[in-house]
Design brief:
This protein has 397 residues and is an alpha+beta fold. The chain folds into two domains: 5-224, Rhopdopsin 7-helix transmembrane proteins, CATH 1.20.1070; 236-390, Alpha-Beta Plaits (2-Layer Sandwich). It has helices at 5-26, 33-56, 63-89, 95-115, 119-142, 151-176, 189-224, 236-253, 267-293, 317-332, 361-377, and strands spanning 257-264, 299-302, 307-313, 336-338, 341-343, 347-353, 383-385. The protein has a five-stranded mixed β-sheet, with helices on both faces. A two-stranded antiparallel ribbon has the order 4-5.
Length: 397
């Protein structure tokens, strides 16, 4: 059965429209930039479907309508797809670049199609525009290097490179073939091959987009599962994971890991006075205050209602005590405004540091918690260490 450009184009139009519907329905009602990126990709597929539909209906269109309208839709779809990809990847959108590429590409195609007709130059000009969008896509896919590499990025990069090779092949056929086609709709083996492969690209690219979307959701869920929703610091799960990693690193490097267990004094009275809404404001301010005293590399997490933990790599016990005292003084000297009332908050802090060869995170945290209990028992608003050398020595009162 002989092939027809119109039939291949109609199949591509239906396929693109079906993919657009599936992507749009699959993310309907979902918030977030990743979902917005996938919806934009769906919209790009719908626009691309219109371009294929025009080629399928060429018998009912004026050549200028097909040329200007079809290329406008295809270049618009290309730009939208690039912006959608960059949105999914979390890169700067570069929409102005995509818009400029689309406009210049369409103007050039129109010039060599209507004003000074030259099919080879028209295809070359349009190919350069599409290649510009491919460059924007590849740049986003390679951003971050090996640290951000993933299976989805690899799939999309392969699709981008194949698209570039298809453009190179098409232009090579036009410039070096003795009898090249004079229009994309002309019955010719080269045109059949080009239209067929071009029509398959939306399917392959959509698979790559779905893989990327899935990876993005997994990454978001992984992050959400490890962040305290009130204060934005690490939660208990993330803190235990980080502590395990830092402890292993400290053992490998022969260094010490300092741990501070911090608890707000008399916090029940804060909730009784201001309600739980006011208490949440105090906890958020407390977390911000502690975070502001830490140096680069220190980690803060929330492990209980008003209880926080600070992990300080490369920090011996004496240095941990100094850091703890700095936190205690900062909190004590920073009155908080809650519902129009000033609140003077204090904290008690227990400090600990790894012993030589220590590998048990739970035991390290327990020693810091024991020191915190001693600080509370000794009158609160103080720093204490549970280690034998300085176990019962308050740093401040």
């Amino acid at each position: 059965m002989p092939m027809h450009i119109e039939t291949l184009s109609l199949i591509s139009a239906i396929q693109s429209l079906a993919l657009a519907a599936m992507l749009w329905i699959g993310t309907h009602g979902q918030p977030g930039p990743a979902r917005t990126g996938l919806k934009l990709r769906a919209a790009a597929l719908a626009v691309e479907s219109g371009g294929w539909a025009m080629l399928a209906m060429q018998a009912w269109l004026h050549p200028a309508q097909l040329l200007l309208g079809g290329n406008a839709l295809n270049l618009l779809a290309q730009g939208m797809a690039v912006v959608a990809l960059r949105m999914l990847l979390g890169e700067s959108l570069r929409w102005r670049w995509a818009l400029a590429i689309g406009v210049l590409g369409w103007l050039g195609v129109g010039w060599f199609g209507v004003v000074q007709p030259d099919y080879r130059l028209r295809v070359l000009w349009g190919s350069v525009a599409i290649m510009g969008n491919i460059v924007l896509a590849v740049q986003a896919l390679l951003a971050g290097g090996a640290a951000r590499w993933s299976r989805a990025r690899g799939v999309l990069l392969a699709i981008s490179l194949m698209s570039a090779l298809l453009l190179v092949w098409r232009n090579g056929q036009l410039w070096f073939d003795l009898n090249p086609p004079v229009a994309v709709a002309q019955p010719a083996t080269d045109n059949y091959f080009y239209v067929l492969l071009s029509g398959m690209q939306p399917l392959f690219a959509s698979i790559g987009f779905l893989l990327l979307y899935s990876e993005t959701l997994q990454r978001e869920l992984h992050t959400l599962a490890r962040v305290d929703p009130l204060t934005g610091v690490k939660n208990r799960l993330a803190l235990n994971e980080t502590a395990t990693q830092l402890l292993a690193h400290a053992n490998r490097m022969g260094r010490s890991l300092g741990v501070l267990m911090i608890d707000a004094d008399h916090f029940k009275s804060v909730n009784d006075r201001f309600g739980h809404g006011g208490g949440d404001k105090v906890l958020l301010a407390l977390a911000d205050g502690i975070r502001g005293t830490l140096r680069a590399g220190n980690v803060i997490g929330r492990v209980g209602g008003e209880e926080f933990v600070v992990l300080a790599p490369d920090t011996a016990l004496e240095e941990a005590l100094v850091l703890a005292e700095r936190i205690r003084q900062t909190v004590e000297c920073t009155p908080l405004m809650v519902d129009g009332h000033l609140l003077q908050l204090t904290v008690s802090i227990g400090a600990a540091a790894t012993l030589p060869g220590e590998r048990d995170v739970a035991r390290l945290l327990q020693r810091a918690d024991t020191a915190l209990y001693e600080a509370k028992h000794a009158g609160r608003n103080r720093v204490m260490a549970a280690d034998p050398d300085v176990a019962d020595r308050p740093l401040s009162a």
